[in-house]
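User: For a benchmark we're assembling, each entry needs the component sequences followed by a predicted structure for the full assembly. Here are entry 17's components. Please fill in the structure.
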Amino acid sequence: MISSPSPWIPTLTLLLLSLPIIFFFTSHILPPPPPPILSLPDELDDLTLFRRAAAVDSHPTHKPISRLGSTNRKPKIAFLFLTNTPLHFAPLWERFFNPNNSVQIKNLYNVYVHSDPTVKPYVKPPGGVFSQDRFIPAKQTFRGTATLIAAARRLIAAAIIDDPDNMFFTLVSQHCIPLYSFQFVYNSLFEINDHQVAELKGLKYKSFIEIIDQDVNLWDRYTARGNNVMTPEVKFENFRVGSQFFTLTRRHGLMVVKERRLWKKFRLPCLRPQSCYPEEHYFPTFLSNVDPDGCAGYTLTRVNWTDSVNGHPHTYYPSELSPELIFNLRRSSFALPYMFARKFSPDCLKPLMEMADEVSRNQLSWNFFQHNCTYRC
Ligand SMILES: *[C@@H]1O[C@H](CO)[C@@H](O)[C@H](O)[C@H]1NC(C)=O
Ligand SMILES: *[C@@H]1O[C@H](CO)[C@@H](O)[C@H](O)[C@H]1NC(C)=O
Ligand SMILES: *[C@@H]1O[C@H](CO)[C@@H](O)[C@H](O)[C@H]1NC(C)=O
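Assistant: Structure for entry 17:
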């Protein structure tokens, strides 16, 4: 039996012929133009700011708090908000910082905001703990570029300069929410038990930042700026990836604002945007190189990477919110639970506030800002 010519052959031929055309078009449509880099004037401004921060810390204007009882000043946590949209969760954070207008904790934190000034309409300070004077001089930021490293360093430098009592720097975004009370976060970071008096133990404290050296995308990310670009400053075996949002000790914050060597490489634009998350690479790489023992190796901010799309984690919507969800988000396999979480859509504010309000009304409901919650804890 003689088989007739397969009907696939003309189709295949046509496909093969059209390949160059498809290739031509895709290579002209993709890739998108390279993202802009930090401008020279911005970079010079930053250098001035970072030098000021380094100088403040080497010549403290008043004595650091160190000895028990020698001063009534207490160490503080600086909360650094990095945003390019309005701060949708400001009321929730306000509740976190001011449960019941409690005076007790007012002197235990500071808030700083870096808000992209080019975003239209301009992000208005929502007031309260997010008053105008908490907004630091900010510059334009772009996803997938070193501008996000620069913005984080600006926040750290501003917090170092502003208050010598800022001992931890917690970076969050406008999509982050707190999962515990401020008091719980504070006591956990400073290792204060209920009956213990606060004592700053200086070098003992660790930074909470994820540091990963085993990852299928590690090489792609290392070479995102081209081959042989990162050496000699950053060797592949020293390259790490990790969490975008972290809590650093003051000591590490200071090292970060003084850092120049790695920055020279990480500031370079990426050729492959899909492998380019400079801020998730710079901080873990630098800190794991200079002080691995000073890093806990995990972050306090929970992110759900299941089914992530285009480098974005899962975004929670109101229909997903429940006390159980928050309970699950807190659970970690590390020494400390997760204390913050992202990413939440802006319309989660109302249900989250309602959950927080339940606290006072219903003993059995989940206790939003108390760690000793009665609901399944
Ligand atoms: C809030 O204030 C009320 C009344 O002043 C008090 O009973 C309650 O314990 C306070 N709650 C917190 C979380 O401070
Ligand atoms: C993480 O996100 C996925 C969907 O992307 C969802 O099914 C899952 O329940 C989420 N996990 C938690 C702990 O919220
Ligand atoms: C939880 O804390 C509240 C207020 O701080 C307290 O009244 C209550 O007894 C505590 N519950 C437990 C189980 O420890």
